[in-house]
């Protein structure tokens, strides 16, 4: 925090060496070591970091208005900042051509604006505390900019002396504090009594409506879980079947007891469906009723011809019917019912043909691939020769020479 008794800045001692360094800053990419202590810590860090990573003149880093960086560089190179040939300093009329204004923004920030109307520049000074690189507490350059057509003092909003700046800041702080206290008191009085109750009731109603809307979402959500299915146990098992069960002590026994009379799904014998005097269901395999021999023979012949079968025992054929069938017809029927696999000779022949076709197909594919490789290799060699300046005729002559040599040494390969 700056003190209320801060001394005014030595404007001439700060601005004069800065103006002398501007022409060199307009053509150099790195700042001079003698200029860095004049800058504020923030501006000094900005210049050091950005100038080391750029190839442009570092004078553009002194202003935060990038649109006027080029104009600042032009003013520095225009010759108006040339030093006097006798004194070696830049001539500035500090009494008539320089305007100075002070302002305090907050408890930590105290600024001074120096407008150099003759050069069209302004320098904003900032009071810095604990600046060891700049020589301790004191005034430093916070920005160097171009003065626009309207005076920078209008937008700066400062006063002519440092003491007036301190008084203006204290007066503004007192007015703001009084306004804040008045607003707090009026707010407290305005919400007292019945209005306080109305606000509370309004908040309760709003909260209740929000809760209703929240829980109402679940009423509109369709059910995702399936409905509960009824147990296959009889309903009488719930209470009448076990009147003496203590549910608090034997709840688990009662739960499992209800499955004692449940009919398993895989058991086709249901005791509840039994009727007294009715025989058991007919088994799967039963004997056929006796039929006359002639009908039995005809039925057997039909079954054997069609390939039909049953789980019952086949009927016994009469000897006369069995002897009437010829041996040739029996073999034919056996062949129909039990077909024989293909002969080994025919199988071997088919496999051999398939292998020959497969090998021929592979040979064709390999031959095609080799031809493609040769064609692409010749094209690649031709393109390579063109890049080296070998024309088409020279390339043809080289290829033909190699083919002739290959014909002579082909037998030796």
Provide a compact summary of the structure:
By secondary structure, this protein is α+β, with helices and mostly antiparallel strands. 47% of the residues lie in helices and 8% in strands.
Task: Walk me through this protein's architecture.
By secondary structure, this protein is of the alpha+beta class. Among the domains are: 11-170, no CATH class; 356-409. It contains twelve helices and four strands. Strands 1-2-3-4 form a four-stranded antiparallel sheet. The model is unreliable at 190-200, 236-246, 281-288 and 305-315 (pLDDT under 50).
Instruction: Please outline the major beta sheet.
Output: 4 strands, antiparallel
- Spatially, the strands of the biggest sheet line up as 1-2-3-4
Question: Could you give the distance between the termini?
Answer: 98 Å
How much β-strand is present in the residues?
Answer: 5-15%
Low-confidence stretches: 190-200, 236-246, 281-288, 305-315
- The helix/strand series, from N terminus to C terminus, equals HHHEEEEHHHHHHHHH
Shape: flat
Number of DSSP strand runs = 4
Structural class: alpha+beta
What number is the mean pLDDT? 74
Fraction of helical residues:
40-55%
Tally of helical runs: 12
Give the radius of gyration. 57 Å
